[in-house]
Amino acid sequence: MRKTRFLAGASIIAAGLLALTACNSGTPGAEGGSEGGSGDAPVYGAVASDVTIENSPTFDKIQSAGKIVVGVKEDQPGLGYLDPVTGERKGFDVDTARWIAASLGFDPADESKVEYKAIASANREQALINGDIDYYVGTYSITDKRKEQISFAGPYFLTGQGLLVAADDDTITGKDSLTAETTVCSVTGSTPIQRIREQTPAQVVEFDTYSQCVEKLKNGEVDAVTTDEAILLGYAAQDPDNLKIAGEPFSEERYGVGIVKGDTAFQEFVNTMFTDGGDTWQAIFEKNLGASGVSGEQPTVDPVS
């Protein structure tokens, strides 16, 4: 399997992401913006026409509604972020969601055709089951437990779990340094918080969003924040004087697109889009994460089962 090597050299990546945050552009020659990859054309390419997906309840629902509703995150710099000043959505996951929408024949630039809903980690499966969203793209790790309730297309990105700590904290150097006196924060329903519970003696604190955890860390109310290192690097880059990554990643997280369970036709459509769209994937990576100085390599999708 081809892998995305995003995790090596945390300090170098954080510095690169800080530059990315400052200029809002990771693609050489780009003028920034949430959808442009070259200044003239959107990074996700042209909007498809005359799309059909037979035997797909998801596609039938989208066609009937005349719009797509996408579940996303909006507090993860570089991946899924809603700028509170401009109202602009940015990030690798956001552009991946736009890519899927464009491939389905819906223009992501048209707000009447593509709607975004921020869904907390603990509510993602239920949002898909209830039909509140058509698909979910937001650092959604593929796990066997989740596949009992929903299906996944992908993976489209690989990363690993890490720890974010105060910049002056030299006591936490990785997962093995966590003790019964250590308080670790993450979001309710996430894979990382389950791993901390199962593999360390640390105490855990849960919130709906990672940004809440980061504020608790800055205020000294928790000792560390844990989630995928790709997410943590964005926070460290935003505030390098107060935050840093501790140690090396200690898992492999495989991000997938959450869809309604059993919709194999839609799953195959998205997987084919990923498989055939290597150049688009690379453009999205370069736009959002290229300034980190680390090259990205697209992973191979899982077989549909």
Q: What structural class do the secondary elements suggest?
A: alpha/beta
Spatial strand sequence of the major β-sheet = 10-9-11-8-12
The biggest beta sheet reads: 5 strands, mixed
What's the N-to-C terminus distance?
A: 18 Å
- Tell me, what's the shape? globular
Roughly what percent helix?
25-40%
What share of residues are in beta strands?
Answer: 15-25%
Architecture overview:
This protein has 305 residues and is an alpha/beta fold. 31% of the residues lie in helices and 20% in strands. The protein contains 9 helices and 13 strands. Helix 1 (10-23) crosses helix 7 (229-238) and helix 3 (92-103) runs antiparallel to helix 9. It is globular and about 60 Å long. The model is unreliable at 1-39 (pLDDT under 50).
Mind sketching the topology for me?
Elements: H1 10-23, H2 57-65, E1 68-72, E2 75-76, E3 80-82, E4 89-90, H3 92-103, E5 114-118, H4 124-130, E6 135-136, E7 150-159, E8 161-166, E9 183-187, H5 191-199, E10 203-207, H6 210-218, E11 224-228, H7 229-238, E12 243-246, E13 253-260, H8 264-276, H9 278-289
Parallel strand pairs: 1-5, 1-6, 9-10, 9-11
Antiparallel strand pairs: 2-3, 3-4, 7-13, 8-11, 8-12
Helix pairs in contact: 1-7, 3-9
